[in-house]
Amino acid sequence: MRYFVGAYATSPAWSKWDPALEREYYQQLKTFNHVKGLEHPFVGTLHPHDEQWFLENIDPHWDFVLTCVPGIMNALGDNPKFGIASNNEQGRADALTFMQKACAAIGKLNSYCGRQAVKAIEVQTAPNQSVASSSAAALRVSLETMLSWDWQGANIVIEHCDTLLPGQTPAKGFLSLTDEIKVLSQLNQTHGKDMGIVINWGRSAIETRSTEGVIEHITQARDSGLLKGLMFSGASDKDSPYGVWKDTHMPALPAQEGEIGAEYSLLSESQIHQCLAACGDALSADTIIGIKLGVRPKDAPLAQRLAYNQAALAMLDHYFA
Hints:
Blueprint: E1 3-5, H1 7-10, H2 19-29, E2 35-41, H3 51-57, E3 63-67, H4 69-78, H5 89-113, E4 118-123, H6 136-147, E5 155-160, H7 177-191, E6 196-200, H8 201-208, H9 212-223, E7 227-232, H10 269-278, E8 288-291, H11 302-320
Parallel strand pairs: 1-2, 1-8, 2-3, 3-4, 4-5, 5-6, 6-7, 7-8
């Protein structure tokens, strides 16, 4: 099995641009065994600092899954009504304009690689319902519009983020998994498409405040025939540098004493394996399987950042061995 790495989350030079350090980071990633490619953020362009640099430094043999969540979160900072599920028409229109740019970026990346390198685009069902109104109906209209565009073979998948629940402060507060499944099922049937759901471990744990809830989300997506992938980021119910129930892409617990890992993480090798097993027949060579890890302290050296990724990839490998 081969995996996607959300490399931007572990990058030593993402927020403060250092092309030499980022180049070394990419060179090291290219040596990793079993890496299929990158889960790469779309922020309005293919790279927040230097798009041409990005194209020149990727491995052209990598595959890509574009995730829209960093760009969406940036946009929500300016306009809380932004999102493809927004009931505010201007906020929804702005989100569709953003998605059109993502569609064009897929074409640019494919063209540079000389093939269909982008396998999927992960979209998220903003806005945050604690501050703006959203609905399944608005999501359906947006997706119908997006289905009319040429995605050059990239499949549209919804990455489920935590939804708004009573008495709970959300990290994202987007639509419920039930609403997302309902809309995708309807559109797949009426339009003959194969859109689906990607479950992010940390975001489902944050929503359900449990590890069992992640399995429930996987099972719900699987039983609907929509499960397209699992991305593993951790979360914690205890105070730590990663926060309590925060979407900070916390690494997993150490697999063994003395190995690298994040203390108090609820994500473990056992949890990873349980989730993969829960996929059942939905798990195949085409399933999006990967990791996306943040590192604390934020000034951690490059070697430590790489080691966290290597440790998590080894946990995946142990399942498929």
